[in-house]
């Protein structure tokens, strides 16, 4: 009798368990954050989190095409447009870090004492090899907005090279070319960790308010996509922004450095 009851409970639990499809940015994947969150999510909900890590632009397109239940991305302007068009709902802030400009050690002295605009003009005027993601990711959107702030995006210049790849892979290309790149701090710390604390690319510009990098989670709109699991997507949003999960994100570190700062309770945008 006990075995029958146990089997019934086991089957009931497994029937209720679902696979939640998430489209996300490469930085949440590259840093290892999702690898840390996944077992916690499964342990606490019984569900499996399956994600595809691409640029934010591609992640939003997956949501638009009904190929994801939930999105975890970092390009506020594009996210708000996504919501406005009716593709997503329940956009909720989660965390932030910041963008930094990193460059080969040999180039670092050129940037000493320069602010953000002066650093960008230095890259442009001296034609330093600059690696762009070129993939409509959150990082790519930010980078292009920065170039526009001093004129225009130098897409036709030979020193401006587009990788079309994720953040960590693009950093390695910049390393090979002894060049310059914009990256989120979390992925840079992961790169630094992979290089055992002795990276060839180092931070040459940071701290400008325009370099803040905000992450939000969005449910795909069930009115737009009849096949999405909105119920579980909403539960995931609540789970991701509860105190215990935010505490885990806050404590997620490499080389004793936090990769993200939680702001789900304070940011209103």
TrEMBL record:
Signal peptide interval: 1-17
Cross-referenced PANTHER family: EXTRACELLULAR TUNGSTATE BINDING PROTEIN
Domain PBP: 23-243
SUPFAM superfamilies linked to this entry: Periplasmic binding protein-like II (SSF53850)
GO molecular function, one term: ABC-type tungstate transporter activity
Protein name in UniProt: Tungsten ABC transporter substrate-binding protein
Highest taxon in the source lineage: Bacteria
InterPro entries (UniProt xref): ABC-Tungstate_binding (IPR052738), PBP_domain (IPR024370), TupA (IPR053775)
Keywords of this entry: Signal
């Amino acid at each position: 009798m006990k075995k029958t009851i146990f089997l019934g409970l086991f089957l009931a639990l497994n029937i209720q368990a679902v696979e939640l499809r998430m489209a996300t940015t490469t930085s949440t994947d590259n840093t290892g954050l999702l690898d840390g969150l996944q077992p916690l999510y499964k342990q606490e909900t019984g569900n499996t989190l399956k994600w595809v890590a691409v640029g934010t632009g591609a992640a939003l397109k997956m949501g638009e095409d009904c190929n994801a239940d939930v999105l975890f991305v970092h390009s506020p302007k594009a996210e708000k447009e996504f919501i406005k068009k009716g593709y997503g709902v329940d956009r909720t802030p989660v965390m932030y870090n910041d963008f930094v400009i990193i460059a080969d050690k040999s180039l670092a002295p050129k940037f000493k004492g320069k602010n953000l605009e002066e650093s960008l003009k230095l890259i442009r005027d001296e034609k330093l090899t600059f690696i762009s993601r070129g993939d409509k990711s959150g990082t790519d959107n930010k980078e292009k907005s920065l170039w526009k702030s001093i004129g225009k995006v130098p897409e036709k210049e030979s020193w401006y090279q587009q990788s079309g790849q994720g953040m960590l892979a693009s950093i390695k290309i910049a390393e090979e070319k002894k060049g310059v790149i914009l990256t989120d701090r979390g992925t840079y710390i992961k790169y630094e960790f992979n290089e055992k604390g002795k990276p060839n690319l180092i931070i040459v510009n940071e701290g400008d308010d325009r370099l803040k990098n905000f992450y939000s989670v969005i449910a795909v709109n069930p009115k737009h996509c009849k096949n999405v699991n909105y119920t579980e997507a909403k539960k995931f949003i609540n789970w991701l922004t509860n105190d215990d999960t935010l505490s885990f994100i806050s404590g997620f570190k490499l080389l004793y450095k936090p990769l993200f700062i939680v702001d789900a309770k304070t940011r209103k945008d």
